[in-house]
Amino acid sequence: MHVSSVLQGSARLLRPSAAQQQLGRVRELIQRTSHVAGLNAKRAILAEYNDLTPLLQLVYEGRFHLTSRTVQKFRDAYQGCGVGYIPSNVTELLHLLNNGIRGRQACQLVNAFIEHHNIDDDCMIDTLYRCIDRHLRVGLSKHSIYHMVQRETSMTAFLERLQRCGHLLESQMPVALARTWDQPASCPPTKTCWYASRKLDGIRCLFVVTYNKAHAVYAISRTGRRFHTLTEWEHRLTRELAAYPSSFVIDGEMCVMNAEGHESFARAMSTIQQPGPKPDLVYFPFDLVTLDEFTGGGGRPYSERLECLRSLVPHLSQVGALPQTRIDHPATFEALVRDSREWEGLMLREDVPYEGRRTPSMLKIRPRCEAEYTVLGVDIRTMRLASDGIYADRRALASVTIQHGGRRVSVGSGFRAQERIHFAKYPEDILGHTVTVSYMAEAPTLKAQDTSLRFPVVKHVYREGRTI
């Protein structure tokens, strides 16, 4: 045999396989975390091992249907067997075990893996057994490791979907949505504090800023759709954010202001739907979260995120500062509620970490008005409704038509299921009758002489006429 062939063969034997290298990394992680005491220090070390994320995900999410004790018993009697495929690393091995291989076949696979990769060191064997037992003993709870792994994988998946498709499904958008606070006479309870701001009547818009040697900016709606008419904004923000080498999300409202300084929802909607320059649009951001916080939740409280946002806003074009008032006294809250009667409403944000869902840590207070109208028309359709606890497709009242000023308005909210079924069968019981409608505010339209209603709800139907 040629000398060079012998040397190459020896080098292959001496060079650690991918499986050995991976077990060495896991062992190193275990040793390093065992030498520090603090939880944050352990988490910081874990963050350095991103290459182990797929393996850790399998360890803490998988089900392998065998234990190290079972493998060891089988190994004592193992004489070698003809396993068709030997995984090249530990992640592949765990993936196969997680996908249903069990019993004798699983034990044969693990022992063939050990033999094939020359895993004869006691430390490496012990590390592999810890992976199979789903307990690495790194001084962190399964919840802590699982949470960090989930944040990493969810952030990566989020970016991959966004970059591949250019948009996201609504279910994939971890957007913070507000609940309604219907007791404006008292400030909501909290263990921290509230920050209050004017509720804007605009278009919700999130700028997802990704950084990988250079920035890429995506303008998306709260439902995950790309605003293709805001490419000029995306390009401008890419230039203006060149000095900020990180990935984050800016959350806010796109508004068009009228001569009185109030937002015009109709003009904002019309402007954002049209291509071309948009000099009238002003963006009012109210939150800034890292991409990690956005996709995984948690992280810094709102006060810290707000501080970062305030330092960023002055450096951006066509971006306005939305004042946030810390509520330290009931009198402050009462004054803000009074002021909000002239606005779209009031927004409250609790000084807690980010939550990408409809959350009690974000509340809206909206003043509502009431008026009486005569029902001019009805819309009867097939709707899926419950009657006596049974859901079925039924003919039902979908909405009524009223007239507000010179404009006809359709109102579909406020009816119970039995009322919808009754009025579909007997429309004369509501046609021509008076109804009380609650609404948030008058909504201007593109025709200056007409106004519509924002969020109208039928509160009461006077079947026998208005008597009180």
UniProtKB/TrEMBL annotation:
Keywords: DNA damage, DNA repair, DNA replication, Ligase
Record-linked InterPro entries: DNA_ligase_ATP-dep_cent, NA-bd_OB-fold, NAD_dep_DNA_ligaseB
Domain ATP-dependent DNA ligase family profile: residue ranges: 191-365
Cofactor: a divalent metal cation
An example Gene Ontology biological process: DNA replication
GO molecular function term, any single one: DNA ligase (ATP) activity
Organism: Malassezia arunalokei
One Pfam family matching this protein: DNA_ligase_A_M
Identification of the protein by name: ATP-dependent DNA ligase family profile domain-containing protein
